[in-house]
Amino acid sequence: MANDNTELTYLQQQQQTRHQIEENISRAFAPEDDGLRNALTSARAAGLPEIQISPIQGKLLQVLAAACNAHKILEIGALGGYSGIWLARSLPEGGRMITLEISPEHAAVVRNSFEKAGVSDRTEVRVGRALDLLPHLASEAPFDLVFIDADKPPYPQYLDWAMRLTRPGSIIVADNCIRGGKAFLPSQDEVITGVAELNRRIASDPRLASLLLAMDEDYTDGFAIAVVKY
Ligand code: DHB
Ligand code: MG
Fold first, then answer.
1. Is 175 close to ligand 1, i.e. is its CB under 6 Å away?
2. Residue 84 sits in a domain of what CATH number?
3. How many other CB atoms sit within 10 Å of the CB of residue 164?
4. Quick check: is 10 in a domain?
5. Is 50 exposed, middle or buried (0-12, 13-18, 19+ CB in 10 A)?
6. What gap in Å lies between CA 85 and CA 177, rounded to an integer?
7. Which ligand is nearest to the CA of 50?
8. Short-list 166, 176, 215, 225, CA closest to 196
9. Which of 24, 34, 113, 176 could form a disulfide with 81 if both were Cys (CB 3.0 to 4.6 A apart)?
10. What's the 3-state SS for 33-68?
């Protein structure tokens, strides 16, 4: 019988192994270039929280974009532009990405990072509350891929808009839908209830084929992925 100390060591070893596996996958499939690294250092220098997606998640977004032949991408919540660079780089010639960002200061960082990453030509950063900007996107729909990664309480409303602004075959991805498992427990916290409601809806909507994927290195958070069915 292992005592508590050896048990902890074993868990730590398991953790490190998972971390190393993630690093090896990242190195092989999702290496960061100067454009992505610059986006991280610029965001940090501007005091933005370091809560961007991982390289593996960035690469998954590109795989999903390829799967739905994405020419038009909508991102709700730009943060420092890191995920936006992964997304914009998945676009073919003539493709476009619109990213919505509430903070003008963050938007300036994002535009600069897009420029340095060489994706300014195909991207547009729109500044304002997403719920104010989304109704104006109807004329630019349908989007082939929508990535939701903004404030969590309105996640169900963002999903409603994503459904309106997509087509059969489009893919909708939402970040942070597990929250350390809190998304499956009763909660009064509107951050948790927001993602929990999005999970409930995508799990039961017959128009969608959906899955929640635990995919950060300690399995505490991840993407909700929903394909709009034909
Ligand atoms: C938070 C938001 C995110 O989009 C994220 O990826 C991690 C954390 C947050 O608001 O705490
Ligand atoms: Mg996030």
1. yes
2. 3.40.50.150
3. 13
4. no
5. exposed
6. 22
7. 1
8. 176
9. 113
10. CHHHHHHHHHHHHCCCCCCCCCHHHHHHHHHHHHHC
Q: How far apart are alpha carbons 159 and 205 in whole angstroms?
A: 11
Does this model's pTM top 0.85? My answer is yes
> Ligand 2 centre from 79 Cα, in Å?
9
Q: Which residue is associated with the tokens 């990664």? A: 149
Work out how many domains the chain is built from and give that number: 1
149 lines ligand 1 (CB under 6 A): yes
Q: Is residue 62 situated within a structural domain? A: yes
Please identify every residue whose CB atom is under 5 Å from ligand 2, which is an ion: 149, 175-176
* Atom 4 of ligand 1, residue of closest alpha carbon: 149
Rounded Cα distance, 149 and 49, in Å: 13
Q: Which atom of ligand 1 is nearest to the CA of 191?
A: 10
In a domain, 223, yes or no: yes
Asked if 102 contacts 130 with a C-beta cutoff of 8 angstroms, the reply is yes
The CA-to-CA distance between both ends of the chain, in Å, stands at 54
Q: What is the pLDDT of residues 155-214, one digit of tens each?
A: 999 999 999 999 999 999 999 999 999 999 999 999 999 999 999 999 999 999 999 999
- Looking at the domain assignment, is residue 66 inside a domain? yes
Range of the domain at 112: 32-228
The reply to whether ligand 1 has any atom less than 6 angstroms from the CB of 220 is no
At residue 179, what is the residue type?
Answer: R
The model's pLDDT over 36-55, given as tens digits with 9 standing for 90+, comes to 999 999 999 999 999 999 99
For 217, the token pair is 């290195």
From the CA of 152, how far away is ligand 1's center (Å)? 8
Query: Nearest CA to 162 among 134, 188, 189?
Result: 134
